[in-house]
Design a protein that fits this description.
By secondary structure, this protein is of the alpha+beta class. The protein is built from ten helices and 21 strands. Helices cover about 35% and strands about 25% of the residues.
């Protein structure tokens, strides 16, 4: 059984089916459709593996996942484009960080090229910067389209996908029986790919040792360029990340359908699935505020959080952040686009879990932290989860 029909859950079901064709596989999803949350609400980037700590699961699985995702899209006729991206330094203090990023890319096996202002203009004529890192292997795709194809492939191979089924917990018994609002389900093994609800699902199923982490939801808000201004961006334009802060900063990303996303910022969501300021859950907010890890995180990064909140509430502030990368972007060029929510695991000491996190509890494996680049790495995540649970080669 796989709990959660986002791209990681679907890819995991596929890997289990491939590893053990005789094993009945079922996917259960609480929403009435697949890919409703993180999978269907992102900028659709096939990441190359630029930012991740060398040797980490993120670095390893993203690099492999980029290759397997492109192969899957090509094999199944899913539109994609390997368009490349630039990471742009706009001030002298960012150049050493850009050079450090180049070394990290080399350690991760990611091919990059350092550019000066003229080289940057050749690739992105409207971008402004003192230097840039060109990452040729970055691509774009619709992960909703990938999920649709995965679901169709699963169903064609006898995998049942049940939507509108909420998991309530695990029965206390020697066998693996999962209670749902549609009745109990028995399984030989189970995988929790619950995303924004993954920690709660793990606790409801009796997983031990999880008091020291929580999922904290961070909303990423997007604008998009109006169609007549989409020519300002050819592919992907990113800022140099500041290591003092936990997120990348707003950037500009061409989508596979030709639109250009601007964002995301990162503000605390007031509900686990809170896609606007109006979406508030008293339970979710209370759980967040009571958690000592969040309070410690907030004490450390309150200035960053305040800055992100201002940028959320002020399109002028959002526009200024974009103008650091593309000066020709104006407030009138932007219109609101759907937001997403990132499921970020936070430890009790206030630190963000910076790698994927898999927790094995007997016949159940919990995927507890799978933010970006999980969509890129989803096929590889599925393979290692199947290998862990079934003893199949990864």
């Amino acid at each position: 059984m796989v709990i959660g029909a986002g791209i990681v859950g679907l890819a995991t079901a596929r890997a289990i089916r491939q590893a053990r064709p005789s094993l009945p596989v079922i996917v259960v999803e609480k929403e009435t459709a697949i890919a409703c949350h993180q999978t269907g609400r992102n900028s659709g980037v096939i990441h190359a593996g630029v930012y991740y700590r060398p040797g980490s699961d993120k670095a390893r699985l993203c690099t492999a996942g980029r290759i397997s995702m492109v192969e899957y899209c090509r094999e199944h006729g899913i539109p994609f484009e390997v368009c490349g991206k630039v990471v742009v330094a706009v001030s002298t203090d960012e150049i050493p960080r850009l050079e450090a990023l180049r070394e990290r890319c080399r350690a991760n096996g990611v091919a990059v090229e350092m550019l000066g202002p003229a080289g940057l203009r050749d690739i992105e004529p409207h971008a402004a910067g003192l230097a840039a890192l060109y990452v040729a292997d970055t691509g774009i795709v619709s992960y909703s389209a990938v999920s649709d194809e995965l679901a169709a492939e699963l169903q064609a191979n006898g995998v049942e996908i049940r939507t509108g089924v909420t998991v309530l917990g695990r029965r206390t018994s020697s066998d693996l029986t999962i209670d749902t609002d549609q009745g109990p389900l028995s399984a030989e093994v189970a995988v929790n790919c619950g995303g924004l609800q993954a920690d709660r699902l793990a606790r409801s199923m009796g997983a031990p040792g999880l008091d020291s982490m929580r999922i904290i939801p961070f909303r990423g808000e997007y604008y998009e360029l109006v169609p007549q201004r989409s020519d300002l961006v050819r592919a992907l334009i990113y800022p140099v990340p500041d290591p003092r802060f936990p997120f990348l900063g707003v950037h500009l990303t061409k989508g596979i359908e030709g639109h250009v996303h601007a964002g995301p910022n990162a503000v605390l969501a007031l509900a686990r699935e809170g896609y606007s300021w109006r979406a508030v859950s008293g339970r979710d907010l209370a759980d967040t505020i009571r958690y000592q890890g969040f309070r410690r995180l907030a004490r450390t990064h309150w200035r960053y959080g305040l800055h992100e909140t201002v940028r959320s509430l002020s399109i002028r502030s959002f526009t200024r952040a974009l103008q650091r990368l593309v000066p020709d972007v104006h407030r009138s060029d932007l219109r609101r686009a759907p937001a997403g929510v990132r499921a970020q695991a936070v430890r009790a000491d206030g630190s963000l879990v910076d790698d994927f996190w898999f927790h094995r509890d007997g016949a159940v494996l919990h995927v507890l932290n799978a933010p970006s680049p999980a969509a890129t790495a989803s096929l590889e995540i599925g393979r290692i989860v199947a290998a862990e649970l079934l003893g199949a080669p990864a």
